[in-house]
Amino acid sequence: MYIVNIEGAIRKNDKWLIIERSEMEEHAGGMLSLVGGKVEIEGNSSDILERTVKREIFEEVGVIVKDRLNYVHSTSFLTDTGENVVNIVFLCEYYSGDAFPKSHNEVEKVLWLTTEEILSHPNSPIYLKESIKCAEVLLAVQS
Questions:
Q1: Of 1, 27, 80, 143, which has the most beta carbons under 10 Å away?
Q2: Average pLDDT for consecutive 10-residue bins of the chain (143 residues)?
């Protein structure tokens, strides 16, 4: 069985909304990440992935994204505690809110970084770099 995790790649003024994960997190504490979280069990439901990413972004950093979301890519990985995860990334368009660490047990810092800053940051894991590269390709196709 997999845990389903959803992340949002949010871009504003040529910078990406990135969090530094709290050291209290079981997986990748202290590392940079897109904003997101686990899909909750809801029974019969529609648009669960889209609603999850919007909810997680607001709960963790206080930002609202527009309704239009674009699929970027999906990956799977094993957490530091041995759990299997499917991770799905959506390109999100910023709508409103000043990003801040709203959920301190999950988010240590909020950063707005350029692609180059993310790719060269020492706490930027390979999967974040790949997600940003894929989101950049999608942005280029859309323009």
A1: 27
A2: 96 96 72 94 89 96 96 92 94 97 90 98 95 96 83
